[in-house]
Design brief:
- This protein is mainly alpha-helical.
- The protein folds into two domains: 15-56 and 183-403, no CATH class; 66-165, D-Maltodextrin-Binding Protein, domain 2, CATH 3.40.190.
- Helices cover 66% and strands 5% of the residues.
- The chain is built from 15 helices and four strands.
- The protein has helices at residues 15-31, 34-57, 76-87, 99-107, 133-154, 159-165, 183-217, 220-224, 230-263, 269-299, 307-327, 335-340, 347-357, 362-390, 400-403, and strands spanning 66-71, 91-95, 113-117, 123-126.
- It has a four-stranded mixed sheet, with helices on both faces.
- Helix 1 (15-31) crosses helix 9, helix 7 (183-217) packs antiparallel against helix 13 (347-357) and helix 9 packs antiparallel against helix 10.
- The longest helix has 35 residues, at 183-217.
- The protein is elongated and about 105 Å long.
């Protein structure tokens, strides 16, 4: 909870000067608290430690190779490995001196399969139980391929010339909707941006409301308003607390992106930086929209325990934004996410999601920012009227009807 704002008495205090003094006081009061510093240090360490831990325990992305023990036909080893690579079933071939040793190693679990080649080109696959379908295909294709090569050589066919003649006979895949190799990282960045925006907007919006109630209940606001105009106090508090939230979010982002790039968990550097920048920008817009409304909600009550009653509609709206964004993670270019991204205040969470997914055009980004600014201006006008009518009314909760002057 922020301490009451103290502003020096000055009969000719201008708007910019007054707002700056209030904002500076709010900012310094928050960031100098030991609880604020310790909690954020713990969170930063948790972010970095979590990313490093994931990078350590996730292991490499190399697929496990099936182990094959080959008895006889040494030339078959290279063909088995090449066939496995082409079929997407990686294999590692080891030469085994005799059948008995091969069977013993399969029994001991050292080999997935032992392939015992016969003189006529056939082979016997020895396994512990059943043979994986992919591995069976590799064995069948490789053994058949070697038999064909042997037959062609016996008939005098030049295998090198045959390979050159058939080299062009390959299938080229031309997908209409090719998979995005960055999709997994984009989804993680999207979810992270949504969660951070949700927590920061909700948390610091409540800080604004609580700060307003604290000054009102302690009657300090009456002293402040003898020097300041209500809107100067309102905007000073919003800017000061918002700056704290922006600094905190920036620190989280820098720690997360830096750790992700350093450990190799993030390889889409450009996308990560774009998501980071958009998250900061949309936090400013989203916080400004809700902060003025939270300040108005706080001005309508005289006790902190009553804040939830007037702020509940705002909390429900933020939760609706959060759930809408999470439902759109899997389809950020869908109709729902596209439409809602144009509607304030849903833009504040859905546009960073669409930017992270790479489906937001520059025109969409600029257009939604303009609309969000207009909506924030309208919300500010309404909230300012409520704040001015309610801030000095101590006692019972001011109804919405009274707040609007009706």
């Amino acid at each position: 909870m922020s301490a009451p704002t103290q502003v020096p008495q000055h009969p000719s205090l201008g708007n910019a000067r007054a707002v700056t003094l209030v904002a500076r006081r709010e900012f310094h009061t928050q960031v100098r608290k030991k609880s604020f510093l310790i909690s954020n240090l713990v969170i930063l360490l948790a972010i970095v430690g979590g990313i490093v831990g994931v990078s350590i325990f996730s292991g490499d992305d190399e697929p496990d190779r099936a182990t094959i023990g080959l008895v006889g036909a040494p030339s078959l080893g290279a063909l088995l490995e090449a066939t496995g690579d082409q079929a997407g079933t990686a294999v590692e071939v080891t030469s085994i001196p005799d059948e008995r040793t091969a069977r013993d190693r399969v029994t001991a679990g050292d080999l997935d399969v032992a392939l015992i080649a016969a003189a006529d080109g056939s082979a016997v696959a020895v396994t512990e139980s059943e043979l994986d379908t992919g591995l069976r295909t590799v064995l069948d294709v490789a053994v058949a391929g070697q038999a064909q090569q042997r037959a062609l050589e016996e008939q005098g066919v030049d295998l090198a010339r045959l390979g050159d003649a058939t080299a062009a006979a390959v299938v080229t895949v031309d997908p209409i909707d090719p998979p995005d190799p960055e999709k997994g990282q984009r989804v993680v960045l999207s979810v992270t941006a949504i969660a951070l925006l949700y927590m920061q907007i909700l948390g610091f919006g409540m800080y604004v409301a609580m700060g307003v109630v604290e000054e009102k209940s302690s009657r300090v606001v009456e002293l402040l308003l003898s020097t300041l105009r209500p809107l100067q106090l309102l905007w000073g508090k919003i800017i000061g607390i918002g700056a704290v939230g922006l600094v905190q979010l920036t620190a989280y982002g820098i720690a997360g992106v830096t750790a992700g790039l350093a450990t190799g968990l993030i390889t889409v550097t450009g996308t990560a930086l774009a998501v980071f920048a958009s998250t900061l920008g949309w936090f400013v817009l989203g916080f400004a929209f809700f902060a003025v409304l939270y300040a108005a909600a706080g001005s309508m009550v005289s006790r902190q325990e009553d804040v939830n009653s007037t702020a509940m509609p705002l909390m429900l709206l933020i939760m609706a934004m959060f759930f809408a964004a999470f439902s759109a993670v899997g389809n950020p270019d869908g109709t729902l996410s596209t439409v809602l991204s144009w509607i304030p205040p849903f833009s504040a969470i859905l546009m960073p999601l669409r930017i992270a997914a790479g489906v937001a055009s520059p025109g969409q980004v600029i257009g939604t920012i303009v609309i969000m600014l207009a909506a924030t201006g309208a919300a500010s006008f309404i909230a300012a009227k409520i704040y001015q009518r309610s801030i000095l009314r101590v006692g019972k909760t001011v109804s919405w009807r009274e707040a609007f002057g009706r």
